[in-house]
Design goal:
Elements (H helix, E strand, L loop, with lengths): L9 H12 L1 H5 L7 E2 L1 H8 L4 H9 L7 E2 L5 E4 H10 L6
Antiparallel strand pairs: 1-3, 2-3
């Protein structure tokens, strides 16, 4: 038995057209940031351990983080990427 193809009424079609008019505006909104936990940040930065990340926090130019609670830190992926990029050097 062949399936019937659903059709839209003219009212539903007009409503859909109105919603698609909003699409370009919606695409301009900022994307939600992706946050990494400590383990993910260690992996992303290529560090050996969480203690290496903790050491970097003690430095004045350590990676930026968000303190959610007294014990929980998260790292915005875009911030880690910018921080790593800022540490590039041209010397060997």
């Amino acid at each position: 038995m062949a399936k019937s193809i659903p059709t839209l009424s003219s009212l539903e079609l007009e409503s859909a057209r109105e919603e698609f008019k909003e699409l370009p505006r919606l695409l301009e909104l900022p994307k939600a940031q992706r946050f990494l936990n400590s383990d993910e940040a260690v992996s992303f930065l290529g560090l050996r351990s969480k203690s290496a990340l903790a050491y970097l926090h003690a430095q004045p130019d350590g990676p930026p983080f968000v303190r959610l609670t007294a014990r929980r830190r998260v790292y915005a992926l875009v911030d880690l990427m910018a921080w790593a990029e800022s540490r590039k050097t041209s010397t060997k």
